[in-house]
Amino acid sequence: MSSRPERIVVEAQELPHTAAAWIANAILQAIQETGRCSIALSGGKSPQPIHAELAAAFPAIPWDKVEVFFGDERAVPPDDPQSNYRMARETLLAPARVPDANVFRWRAESPDLDAAAREYEAALCARPFPPRLDLALLGLGPDGHTASLFPGTAALAIEDRLAVPVDVPALAARRLTLTYPVFMEAREVFFLVTGRDKRAALADVVRPGSTLPAARIVHRTRSACIFCDRDAAQDIYPPA
Ligand code: 6PG
Fold it and tell me: What mean pLDDT do residues 115-119 have?
């Protein structure tokens, strides 16, 4: 697949396989061109059925050639139910037998989150550049956040670091997140957006003048594609 349409709207039950097929294709394309692929996974619930489909239905992916990063992480240990790493391990990394050496986990349990972020940035910088990421998977929050780039947080203005800790007052929680410079130079960005609660944020984000955190990535990266179900897309693609 050479050029990707900007938005792919499918029935909710089709989204896991459709998105997984595009992700598999992007991984195989990067490996064909460079011999390897680096992907950043998203957290939250939306990716889970897509991960399961990717692990179950695409055995041609040579995971030994794929480096797996995480777009963000909660400041919790890796076995915490809130951990994005734990979710990815259970839904994709273990079922697909991704080699542990290929998985770059944030040390989110560290008491020094800034040191953990700097360590993560160093792992990312060990990648050939550009791009550090061949594919970034991102979700969308109802407030327009993506990764842990939340409205009103300091991380939105950071241009001189690739990975930072961030306080999220709206959640009364600390997070770790990759910053805009990483996502903006990724070869491809796929947004995975499902459910009615994303309808307003998605309708705003796709507007060229949107000021929501995800909008900057949607409109200004080289190739951003939005996979959404009809519930989320209701306001941008009203039913025929
Ligand atoms: C996280 C994610 C976050 C997520 C959105 C959507 O750590 O939670 O990185 O940005 O993608 O909040 O989450 P859902 O898919 O659960 O709706």
Answer: 98
* Pocket around ligand 1 at a 6 A CB cut-off: 42-46, 71-72, 84, 139-141, 145-147
pLDDT at 222: 83
Average pLDDT over the chain reads: 94
Distance 43 CA to ligand 1 centre (A): 5
- 240 lies in a domain? no
Domain holding 52, by residue range, is 6-233
- In the predicted structure, residue 3 carries a pLDDT above the cut 50: no
User: Can you give the pTM of this predicted structure?
Assistant: 0.96
Mutation choice for ligand 1 from 45, 46, 175, 177, CB with most ligand atoms inside 8 A? 46
Please indicate, yes or no, if residue 1 is contained in any of the structural domains. no
Report the distance separating Cα 227 and Cα 52, nearest Å: 16
- pLDDT (tens digit, 9 = 90+) per residue, 186-205? 999 999 999 999 999 999 99
Residue 214 lies in a domain: yes
Q: What is the pLDDT of residue 125?
A: 95
Give how many domains the chain has, as a whole number. 1
Ligand 1: centre distance to CA 209 (Å): 23
For residue 23, give the nearest of 136, 176, 161, 158 by alpha carbon.
136
